[in-house]
Amino acid sequence: MQAPAFVAVVGHNGAGKSTFFKVLTRTLPYQGEVLLNDQSLHHLSNPAATGLLSYLPQKNMVAFPVKVRDLVVMGLFRHKRFFEQYSAQDYETVQQLLNNLEIPHLLDREFTELSGGEQQMVWLAQLMLQDAAICLLDEPTQQLDIYHKKRVFNLLTDWTVQKNKLILCITHDLVNLHGHVGYILNLSKPEPQLEVLSAETIRENMLYLEEKPPVI
């Protein structure tokens, strides 16, 4: 893996973007060879459980009442021993993270009472707290307003450098990618041309961390 890097995964509907992520998370059978950190994915039964990879799907559901602070702190569960309680310092870390995301007012709210955009920001906070080397995000800005779309992309691209992350982000939000440092992984087929040309236009305006795209 070459990191840090922000990779925008783009393409028309049905191009295989989410399928690609399902392969990386070992939730879909595949043929061929995929390497994560120079290890064959066939030899990694659960990359997420090892802390190598974290994944924020397009839709996440919570069917029980839970405070935002308690949902976000669960991002630390891989760093805990069995039955180990979350500490005051853990909750302080959650507070600082929500401050950075500009959503500290959600800390004591019930998650199920939040808007779709607010819930998405909370899931992003939990993902960041997991602190995995490789982060997969499927349409993280889909339900956000214009301000928070830009805010999320700024946070993700900054995060790659500050925390030495490899971030792969499925998105159709090509406009807000303009000016960011990273790569375009375009999975579109030759048709429709509009989608491909839009991605190429953004590619020309993006700065690159390296001459070659990152190796996962």
TrEMBL record:
Gene3D superfamilies: P-loop containing nucleotide triphosphate hydrolases
Keyword ATP-binding: yes
SMART domains (UniProt xref): AAA
Coiled coil: none
Pfam families: ABC_tran
GO MF entries: ATP binding; ATP hydrolysis activity
Record key words, sorted: ATP-binding, Nucleotide-binding, Transport
Residue intervals of the ABC transporter domain: 1-214
Ribonucleoprotein among keywords: no
PANTHER family (alphabetical): METAL TRANSPORT SYSTEM ATP-BINDING PROTEIN TM_0124-RELATED
Protein name from the UniProt record: ABC transporter domain-containing protein
Organism: Adhaeribacter aerolatus
